[in-house]
Records
---
Amino acid sequence: MNDDTRTPEERLRQQSAGAADMMFRSVRAWNELLTTSTDMAFDVVLKNWDYSRSLRNSAEQAVADTLRTQQRLNREMIQAWQGLSEDVKDIMEKGGK
């Protein structure tokens, strides 16, 4: 059927059906875009969460290692001072005799 043999109602119905089809395709495309962008946003949030958690764990480990090293250094320095004070005490006792 060509356009000349169709009634104006049929032509209008065909045009509105074409417009509705385009509108539905557009809505589907926007829905897919929204779904994809939402998935990507959640994926980025989760990756940032994991990265932050990993970074926090690394920082906590570095602080713990630093504190252990400082504690060991303090013990070694106290032992060195105790040894030095014992040596000074021995020298003073021998020198006083």
---
Amino acid sequence: MARITYIEPDGSERIVDVKVGLSLMEGAINNGVNGIEADCGGVCACATCHIYVDADWIEAAGPRTDIEDAMLDLANEVRDNSRLSCQVKVTDAMDGLILSIPEEQR
């Protein structure tokens, strides 16, 4: 398990334990985190699981894939630290990871 801090769109923090191997999106859905819509169910076919990975955790989250980059074109307010949470698999190295959920998902 990795302890992940989700900062919800209203600014409240939800700290949850997510099983290694699950995606950050699955961790959010399984724990009732607000703001992650996940309309496509995690197959990288929408951008409703858009997140911002805290700068200290960018490397641990790994690089974006080409398809993820393409899907982020559909997201609002994309930043350098934007990711689709369905594409980030939780590892032991992510214990303590902090991410923010944008105010508006498409």
---
Amino acid sequence: MTTIKKTLVALAASLPLIAISLPSQAAMDPYLESALINVCKAAKSNSILKLNSTTKGYRLKHKTVALKLVCNGQDVISFAESYGANKTAARLQKSIGNVSITDVAALSKVKVTF
């Protein structure tokens, strides 16, 4: 009986360590990751036609992309502007409209690095 108790105590002590060592974020689906990378590349290209066809091909809305997508640590609009893609940045900015966000505590963004 003592070996069973020792085994149970050792198992109970090791469970929290195993839970902490697991990665906190699940791996991203490869299809989703390639879709987001392609949208980032389309935004960088400065071609509104390419941006439209890419977002339409993946069934994404421009407003959703503009508000939630992060490319290389920047929001997609700033990312496009940093590469001189002013046309695509303006199109994405236009999709947001004139909304000012004052409380951004629960805003979740998707980060993609390529």
